[in-house]
Amino acid sequence: MSRVVLVTGGSKGIGLACAKRFAELGDKVAITYNTSKPTGDFFAVKCDVTSQAEVDAAFAAIEEKLGAVQVLVSNAGITKDTLLLRMGESDFQTVLDANLTGAFRVCKRATQGMLRARAGRIILMSSVVGLLGSAGQANYAASKAGLVGLARSLARELGSRSITVNVVAPGPVETDMTSTLTQEQKEKMLAAVPLARMAGADEIAAVVTFLASTDAAYITGAVIPVDGGLGMGH
């Protein structure tokens, strides 16, 4: 049965791969974007997840066009990397607002329809950095670690209504962001990855679509690493 799926930050990278995979499964897919113009035949809505008003407007547009959101993939996020002593408070707060509070905003709004339907799937996109930490990414790591606590709290709160909430924690992924790294930087990064390669965005999307499937109906509050073994043991 075709479901209504929303992927935030769905115009490129992992988000776009998720949107494409859900569409291939026959779902009705909406994406939000902020600065990057979307590609593909998805219902696209411009939305800055740091604005509650824009989140509400995006959901209203999606509900009018496609119906209530049944599967939410909270993927929108940003980075502002720098060492702690150079990191301004605004650098820290801005990343938390987009990555963590933004996820809270879209989860809260999506849950309205899911509670009425007594069913739903929520997948939050974290990172291996949220589990391992990373020098120069205190803000990003804190925001991604916070998603675990958010997801597990929501899993307990919403489970009785058959709404599952899970976290995917990718490691290094081949995206536009990593394509700018030098060969030396890539080799240094991959030296710590047992599988000795980056993931393809579609490999992350495969796990996301599994968590949204009926096969994963009894999985909630889980953190699924898709990191080539980089964060094993966490």
Question: What is this entry, summarized?
Answer:
The chain is 42% helix and 17% strand.
- Integer count of domains: 1
The main β sheet shows up as: 7 strands, parallel
Distance between the termini: 36 Å
CATH class: Alpha Beta
What structural category do the secondary elements indicate? Answer: alpha/beta
By CATH, the architecture is named 3-Layer(aba) Sandwich
What's the mean pLDDT score?
95
Q: Considering DSSP H and I runs of 4 or more, what fraction of the residues is helical?
A: 40-55%
CATH fourth-tier homologous superfamily: NAD(P)-binding Rossmann-like Domain
Order of adjacent strands in the largest pleated sheet: 3-2-1-4-5-6-9
Map the helices and strands:
Blueprint: E1 4-7, H1 13-24, E2 28-33, E3 43-46, H2 52-65, E4 71-74, H3 89-117, E5 120-125, H4 129-132, H5 138-158, E6 163-170, E7 173-174, H6 183-190, E8 199-200, H7 201-211, E9 223-226
Helix pairs in contact: 1-7, 2-3, 3-5
Please name the defining characteristics of this protein.
single chain; 234 residues; alpha/beta; Rossmann fold; seven-stranded parallel beta sheet; two-stranded parallel sheet; 7 helices; globular
